[in-house]
Write a structure and sequence with these properties.
This protein is mostly helical and about 450 residues long. It has a domain of about 260 residues. It contains 19 helices and two strands. A two-stranded antiparallel sheet has the order 1-2. α4 crosses α11. About 55% of the residues are buried.
Length: about 450
């Protein structure tokens, strides 16, 4: 267990750290803390395959299989990211999961060419992120603290509307915004916040789990939980290799390659946000290993009919919120995800958690991600006129494109896919302006 202190009375205070990256909490704490992370990411992990299955009108059996594979590959990728396999893996407390960034491209490709072409394109295009990862030592100058801070802030800002949607009952829900949904989310939010600030010890840094448990119990009483899928799910099932025959088409590969650039930027931001929890910037080895894990495991996922993985920003927010920065905790998440994937009935039980429960905790976590990005800039960037302009323009255009995607509706589909993401727009703008605008004196970037 470590406690970081600032080196000067005038320096900004380092974040509160309960367990450092290499610290291993006692097993009695490690497992609940891992479950807390699992709850934070579970809906996000199963949502992309559900959206793709719905968009391609897949039958129930196919959908269940895609969900199973999403859990298994998220577990493997999280273990690799937490502990590493040779140069692959950042050895950081980063939770990996199926990324929603590929949903639009996957549906478009699947409708025209079939799921085999989706997985084939995801396999080939994963090379993009692998190459960037291998070259990050030479390319790191492109991603200074100013750019990384903007990306981390945008991750949080663009996720806050998602958290509100969940808190209201989930996009498209018949009872969206009902008092029941808002009440459940409000209970999770309040219990989590109060315990985090006023409780002591384990109860304080497991506050998210306690809040979610309270919200889930209230949801059961309110009749918001349906256990039908749990009864119908099987007890054990092994992953299957190449359930869909891989196909390779140039246009889908190009489209997926562009999306991998998006997830690369997101992973860079998440790595920076994670190590900011212990008051430092990431090393080249951590960046390289983290990106390699993202790319290699996403390519491997294609062989098992799973969609690409990326780092989960909501779990970065949870790391900052709790002060638990141990990679051994996220290692528990990897094991739990694997077990859920192998035991569909248990996974189905977790999938019964209503969106409002996740939204109540998500709003806090997403806002904490923004705070961690602000911390990067406050700690490492001089806020002179040049850097303030970069920060303002990147955040402004990023949020504008994210919140008003219809403004791009007359542009080509690929442009809409790329720049409809506030993270990509803001990140690229920050990157470009940092290269183009002259530095006057020490700007800290």
């Amino acid at each position: 267990m470590v406690q970081l202190m600032s080196s000067s009375s005038n320096a900004p205070q380092a974040p509160r750290v309960v367990y450092g990256i290499e610290d291993a909490p006692p097993l009695a704490e490690r497992i609940p803390l891992g479950i807390q992370h699992l709850v934070a990411m579970l809906l996000g992990n199963i949502t992309p395959p559900l959206l793709i299955a719905g968009g391609l009108s897949l039958v129930t059996g196919e959908t269940a299989f895609l969900l199973q594979m999403a859990l298994v590959m998220a577990g493997l990728a999280t273990l690799v990211q937490s502990y590493g396999v040779g140069p692959i893996g950042g050895r950081l407390p980063i939770v990996m999961g199926t990324t929603i960034a590929f949903v639009g491209a996957a549906i478009a490709t699947g409708k025209e060419f079939g799921l085999g072409a989706v997985f084939g394109a995801c396999l080939v295009a994963s090379v993009v992120e692998v190459v960037i990862g291998l070259s990050i030592g030479r390319l790191r100058w492109l991603f200074p603290p100013l750019v990384n801070g903007v990306v981390v802030m945008l991750i949080g800002l663009t996720l806050i509307p998602v958290g509100m949607d969940y808190a209201a009952g989930g996009p498209g829900a018949a009872d969206y915004g009902s008092l029941t949904n808002l009440g459940i989310a409000g209970l999770v939010f309040t219990v989590t916040l109060v315990l985090n600030q006023f409780a002591r010890g384990f109860l304080a840094y497991s506050s998210m789990l306690v809040g979610v448990t309270a919200g889930y119990l209230l949801a059961i009483v309110a009749g918001k939980v349906d256990f039908t899928t749990v009864a119908e799910a099987g007890w054990f099932e092994l992953p299957r290799l190449l359930s869909y025959r891989l196909e390779f088409h140039p246009v889908p590969i190009l489209l997926m390659g562009m999306v991998y650039v998006i997830t690369t930027m997101e992973t860079l931001g998440d790595i920076s946000g994670t190590v900011a929890a212990v008051g430092r910037s990431p090393s080249n080895r951590e960046l390289r290993g983290g990106l390699l894990a993202d790319g290699v495991m996403s390519g491997l996922a294609a062989f098992f009919s799973a969609f690409p993985n990326t780092s989960y920003s909501q779990n970065v927010g949870l790391v900052h919120f709790t002060g638990v920065v141990s990679r051994h905790v996220t290692g528990v998440v990897g094991i739990l995800l694997l077990l859920l994937g192998l035991i569909p009935k248990v996974g189905a039980l977790f999938a019964t958690i209503p969106p409002a429960v996740i939204g109540g905790g998500g709003l806090i976590m997403f806002a904490m991600i923004f705070s961690s990005g602000f911390s990067i800039i406050h700690r490492e960037v001089a806020l002179d006129r040049r850097n303030m302009i970069i920060l303002a323009v990147a955040i402004g255009l990023g949020l504008g494109c994210e919140l008003r995607k219809d403004a791009l509706q007359n542009l080509p589909d690929i442009v809409q896919t790329l720049f409809g993401s506030g993270l990509v727009t803001g990140g690229l703008v920050a990157l470009a302006l940092n290269l183009l605008l002259p530095v006057r004196g020490d700007s800290g970037s």
